[in-house]
Write a structure and sequence with these properties.
Elements: E1 2-5, E2 11-18, E3 22-26, H1 37-43, E4 48-53, H2 68-80, E5 86-91, H3 93-104, E6 108-114, H4 128-139, H5 143-155, H6 159-167, H7 171-176, H8 178-190, E7 205-210, H9 215-227, E8 231-236, H10 243-246, H11 248-258
């Protein structure tokens, strides 16, 4: 793993592999850089892949105080540390970080966002009771139960998606990092999306969404489509918030189709 130093001095780790134009991958809540492993071998045939560990995960360090703005700076720091212009791909909370990083980075060519869970929908769940229950479970050492609760009650994962998560090699790492889920969900709920801030973001943007995802995720994607002047949506029919796990070939096809061969 290589590292860069973010604005507040936190070391942000990433794994670099493959060859070609740079593709930066930003995982969501519960994950680390290994969540992209099912896709990496194909991406590496087309891109130099930079798979980030967000702060507090994997090989990245952390700070005593948590603020989501530091996460936005982390992603922008990685993007701007690369010598070529970058395609940035973020999933879930990592997509919020990537969206905000796009306003801070100078080295961005294209942007791919898979269901950033912006708190803009009437369907957005009230998660405070769930977070309190998760905190109690973590305090009792029941990390896996806390993580399953998050996927079922907050993300709205189907049984198929949850089975795919649990069978993935990165599941133990997700269980170990469940304490970071609680802070990130509270940060998500406190995030204030202002469409006007993104009116000048003309970076070509692909918005990915599953037609079986929770309604609040689909609503957030629609709001973002209206806010970003150079964006379009691709729908994963029959899939939800984790098509990387449930339909990896379909996910890869959408990403590759969005990025010109000559770039």
């Amino acid at each position: 793993m290589k590292t860069v130093t973010s604005a507040d001095g936190t070391l942000i780790a990433f794994e670099r592999s493959g060859s070609g134009p740079p593709l930066v991958l930003v995982h969501g809540t519960t994950a680390d850089h290994t969540r992209w492993n099912p896709l990496r071998s194909v991406f590496e045939e087309h891109f130099t892949v930079y798979a980030i560990d967000r702060r507090g995960r994997g090989e990245s360090s952390d700070a005593a105080e948590y603020a989501p703005e530091r996460e936005f700076e982390d992603v922008a720091t990685v993007v701007d540390s690369i010598d070529e212009s970058v395609v940035l791909l973020g999933h879930s909370f990592g997509a919020i970080c990537s969206l905000e990083a796009a306003l801070r980075a100078d080295n961005l060519r294209r942007l791919i966002l898979y269901e950033p869970p912006l708190p803009v929908s009437d369907h957005d769940p009230d998660t405070e009771d769930v977070l309190d229950e998760m905190t109690a479970l973590v305090d009792d050492g029941e990390n896996e139960q806390a993580l399953v609760l998050f996927f079922r009650e907050v993300v709205g994962s189907s049984s198929t998606e949850l089975d795919a998560y649990r069978s993935s090699p990165d599941w133990p790492a997700r269980v170990d990092a469940v304490h970071t889920v609680i802070r990130e969900e509270r940060a998500r709920k406190g995030y204030e999306f202002d469409a006007a801030r993104f009116a000048g973001l003309t970076t070509p943007t692909l918005l990915l969404s599953g037609d079986e995802s929770a309604p609040f995720l689909k609503d957030a994607t629609d709001v973002l489509k209206d806010a970003l002047p150079n964006s379009h949506i691709a729908i994963f029919a029959g899939h939800g918030h984790a098509a990387m796990n449930t339909a990896p070939e379909l996910f890869i096809d959408e990403v590759l189709a969005f990025i010109p061969e000559s770039s």
